[in-house]
Amino acid sequence: MNKHKVANPPVGSINTKLETIRRELRLVFGVPERKALLPDPLDLLIATILSQNTNDINSHRAYTNLKKRFPNFMTLSKVKPSVIENLIRVGGIAKRKSKVISKVVSQLESEFPDFRRRSLAKVERNVLIAHLCRLDGVGYKTAACVSLFALGDDNAFPVDTHIHRILNRVGVLATRNPDQTYETIRDSVPDGVGYELHLNLIKFGRKVCTAVRPRCFECPIYARCGWEKKTRQTFQVPPKAGSKKIDFMHLEEV
């Protein structure tokens, strides 16, 4: 990230910068296609919780284990957290996640008795996300993922650590954490490209603009990047155990 933080630019400026980045990343990564059928909102919500602080493979295994045993996740409110914990253990942090899942489903029964796409899609995005964030263990990223992936809202834009790092590093904005980034940028995303921009920024963050020793020599937005430490110098990066660790599973595959 930039060493010296400055005030965030106007909304219009952020929008213009994001649109430029979107065009450049599209040339490299293409336009991601949505599945023909969107995932169930509750399935997506639970999958996002399971995906936190683990890798694609293990989080998907945990999700699959839970789904096979309890096809309707709303029934998890009547299941002991210890049972959920055993099923999702492969995904890591199982004890904490099992308690979160159990509590979230219980809250949904009272706060969202009709937690289905048709009902949720009628609620204005920011209102819905704010409401979802009142659930224990659900933050902006998880709530925005429900809107983007399960409701098909292409103006929704979840912010994970990759996106937070990239947008601050290249100089689009100046924020301290992903939540601040989301709050600053949520109404500045170019219309209808949230899905494309979100997925391509994550690909970019994993393959090029990595947290450690970013591959600036391969960067498609190098000329537009304001990072003071950027360099075209090439280097060899030895493989590291655990290098596949990411922030969430491929939610478009739920």
Task: Give an account of the 3D structure.
The chain contains eleven helices and no strands. It has helices at residues 11-29, 41-51, 56-69, 81-88, 94-111, 117-120, 125-132, 140-150, 161-169, 178-185, 194-207. Helix 2 packs across helix 3 and helix 2 (41-51) packs across helix 8 (140-150).
Characteristic terms for this protein:
49% helix; 11 helices; 254 residues; mainly alpha; disordered N terminus
Number of strands: 0
Average pLDDT over all residues: 89
- State which percent range the strand residues make up: under 5%
Shape: globular
Helical content class = 40-55%
Q: Which series of helices and strands comes N to C? A: HHHHHHHHHHH
Low-confidence stretches: 1-6, 238-249
Class from helix and strand fractions? mainly alpha
Q: Biggest sheet, in brief?
A: none
Radius of gyration: 19 Å
Distance between the termini: 32 Å
Number of helices: 11
Question: What's the gist of this structure?
Answer:
This protein has 254 residues and is mostly helical. Helix 4 packs across helix 5 and helix 7 crosses helix 8.
